[in-house]
Amino acid sequence: MKLVYKQATIVMAVLFALSAQAAAPVSDLSGGGGVALSGNNGAIMPTGSLEDRVALLERTLNARLRLQAELQQQVDSLQGEVSELRGQLEQQTYQMEQSQERQRQLYQELDKVANSQPAPATPAAGAAPAAVANYSANLDENQAYDAAVNMVLKDKNYDKAIPAFEGFIKQYPSSGYVPNAHYWLGQLLFNKGDRTGAAAQFSTVANKFSKSPKRADALLKLGMLAQLDGKKAEAKTFYEQVIKGYPNTSPAQLAKQSLSKL
Hints:
With 262 residues, the protein is mainly alpha-helical. Helix content is 70%, strand content 3%.
């Protein structure tokens, strides 16, 4: 906005210079006649022959017309720059509003996932039963995990939640909360636009924690990420894994809906 004000000030200065130039007396130094000031208002009175006076007036008029044309070009150029800046500002405002809306939708999903109590997954024949992580007997471990979760659900401090979950995984690598921490990180990184980082977190849940109750959701999110990247065959594989490995579950229903749209 300061740049817009500065350019507007320049426009006003140019217009002032134009009006001042139009009122200033002009003298011709090339010979062939001169000018003299007379009258109460200081008007220009050419002297010499009629032809000299006409030529002088023509030169004066042409000079003023050239000056006005140059000043008008400068004004038009400055107005164009102001219009361009206004367009850029409107575009940035729109992009910010869209980003805020995407964040709002994702955070609603995070709240729903964290506060819900999903039914245990029904694995396919031969698949290992899902294991639900029990509350740890280590109070420090519990407090560290709860603090990271509360940064998302209570404090809404999503930027600090990312290093909190990363620190938890590093400090308690054997914790039963680690699969959930990876899943939270996947959600938060996706919200920041880091699809590669999000996919890495979801892949960790799907490949290293086969008994985690979050594995079905992680596979579903991997399918969605692949679909967003235009990798339809890869997305189909993930969706089919969810449908086959976790039938009659909410992730399986969502996978069927997404699969039908490929």
